[in-house]
Automatic annotation (TrEMBL):
This is Calcineurin-like phosphoesterase. InterPro entries: Calcineurin-like_PHP (IPR004843), DNA_Repair-Maintenance_Comp (IPR050535), Metallo-depent_PP-like (IPR029052). PANTHER family: COMPONENT OF ATP-DEPENDENT DSDNA EXONUCLEASE, PHOSPHOESTERASE. One of its GO terms (molecular function) is hydrolase activity. Residues 3-182 form the Calcineurin-like phosphoesterase domain.
Length: 226
């Protein structure tokens, strides 16, 4: 598989300091894209909450577009799975960005099959993992979900599911959005939240490895508050 860069929960519109809720901001996000491409990533996944629900101004929409335009210039494919904050906005994204449907579906990124569903409404109560599409044999299958899982790390329910449901579905890795801390809930296969101000790269693992893929943080781009 071609390496894939995964980001989540950037919450553009938030200030970088001096507010109760802060975020990494556009400059960080653009640098994360540049560094991810330099590290070999060929595809970009943004796993939800590109923009904040409450903290935004008119320029924030232009920042969202700048983020995706940079993504399109650096990567072969760009997939955006909307998060709960994104549902508060009517985003008009650049042509070329694939926006995940609210219904579970599979998107190809190079040879990799990415299974995901976008958040439909803030506090989306749907339990979707049981209706995800069949995995594709002979290739890497990745799952992307903007989820609170069973709620231990979030007080805002979103596409609830259990770790066991994700394991049973059987992806080579699950990259999650919604929780801002980089909490991992399973080591192999990797299941965990990407986290705010962090960047993960998914690559093919060594042939003898337990998993088909490795999921590693691009530590050089970690936001100082992450
Ligand atoms: Mn969220």
């Amino acid at each position: 598989m071609d390496p894939i860069l995964a980001l989540a929960d950037i919450h553009l519109g938030r200030k970088q300091s001096g507010d109760k809720k802060i975020g990494p901001g556009l400059a960080w996000a653009l640098d994360a894209l540049d560094q991810g491409a330099k590290a070999g990533a060929r595809h970009l996944i943004m796993a939800g909450d590109i923009i904040d629900r409450k903290r935004f101004t008119e320029v924030t929409y232009d920042e969202v577009n700048q983020f995706f335009e940079r993504g399109l210039s650096l990567f072969d494919t760009v997939l955006f799975t909307p998060g709960n904050h994104d549902t508060h906005h009517n985003l008009d994204l650049p042509t070329g960005v694939t926006v995940a449907s609210p219904s579970p579906a599979t998107y190809l990124m190079g040879s990799c099959a990415v299974h995901t569903a976008g958040v439909e409404v803030d506090k989306d109560p749907r339990e979707l993992v049981g209706s995800f599409p069949l995995l594709i044999d002979g290739t890497v299958n990745l799952g992307i979900l903007h989820t609170s899982l069973t709620g231990e790390h979030s007080n805002n329910p979103c596409l609830p599911c259990t770790r066991e449901e994700l394991l049973d579905y059987g992806c080579d890795a699950w990259l999650l959005g919604h929780v801002h801390q980089p909490v991992s809930v399973n080591e192999s296969p990797f299941i965990g939240w990407i986290g705010m101000g962090r960047a993960l790269i998914v690559r093919t693992a060594e042939p003898q490895a337990e998993s088909k893929v490795t999921v590693e943080e691009l530590t050089t781009v970690r936001w100082k508050h992450a």
